[in-house]
Amino acid sequence: MAEAKAGSRCHYKVLGVRRECSGDEIRSAYERKRMKLQPDKAVLRCAGVSEAEATAKYLELIQACKVLSNPRERAIYDYQNPDSSDTTEADSDSLSNRLLSLCNMFHSRGYSEGDVDNIFRSIQWR
């Protein structure tokens, strides 16, 4: 699912984009980094980088792009991995504040009320 694995880096940091970025920004960041991190090229270019390390970084990049390029997966990821600067410590546990924050994020990216409703209806809540 969209949840980050323990020890993995933030998907936004992996791609080098802001949390508020558009889908186009995600795709262009992915393309730039993909060319640098392809395991066969990275191992040849960087002395001291093992093939396993290069492959792990490349797979991390692919996973970040996959999650952040899909609006539903991105919404789940953002919900499960809230940015500490988006909420104060006092309201970080409040589900309504987190959902409102997600709605505002979608609206700021140009989604309509209907789009946001459809996204939230499609999420399999646990």
TrEMBL record:
InterPro entries: DnaJ_domain, J_dom_sf, JJJ1_plant. It comes from the Eukaryota. Pfam families: DnaJ. Residues 10-81 form the J domain. This is DnaJ domain containing protein.
